[in-house]
Amino acid sequence: MAKGDRLYRVIFVNEDQVFEIYAEHVYQSDMWGFLEVEGFVFGNRSELVVDPSEEKLKAKFSGVKRSFIPLNGIIRIDEVEQEGVAKITEAKGVVAAFPMPPAPKR
């Protein structure tokens, strides 16, 4: 990555799985209650070792320009210096939902 570029690790719950993805842009959506994630980053295809869960994520997000993730599914967002391995793991135990603020009044 070029100096000044930002990279984020986004960890969220989707159905009974925990997704860990890397993206270049993460921001609050205009749709209330959602986070927008775009610029997905996955590992090099030139690597000899292929991680099946990362390949599953690549397939799931192929052709996706922007993803809207519900705020109550977000576990953690980190700004990182370098990309790690994107993965899907089974949610073990109870994963508490992020508390939601009340809806804005119209």
Question: What's the N-to-C terminus distance?
Answer: 42 Å
Which spans have pLDDT < 50 for at least 5 consecutive residues?
Answer: none
The counted number of beta strands is 6
Most strands sheet? 6 strands, antiparallel
The pLDDT mean sits at 83
Could you name the key traits of this structure?
6 strands; 106 residues; 42% strand; mainly beta; six-stranded antiparallel β-sheet
Short description:
With 106 residues, the chain is mainly beta.
Written overview of the protein:
The protein is mainly beta and 106 residues long. The chain has one domain (7-90). 9% of the residues lie in helices and 42% in strands. The protein is built from one helix and six strands, in the order βββαβββ. Strands 1, 2, 3, 4, 5 and 6 form a six-stranded antiparallel beta sheet that branches. The longest helix is centred in the middle third of the chain and has 10 residues, at 52-61. The radius of gyration is 15 Å and the shape is globular.
Q: What topology emerges from the helices and strands here?
A:
Layout (H helix, E strand, L loop, with lengths): L6 E8 L2 E12 L5 E8 L10 H10 L4 E5 L3 E7 L6 E4 L16
Antiparallel strand pairs: 1-2, 1-5, 2-3, 2-6, 3-4
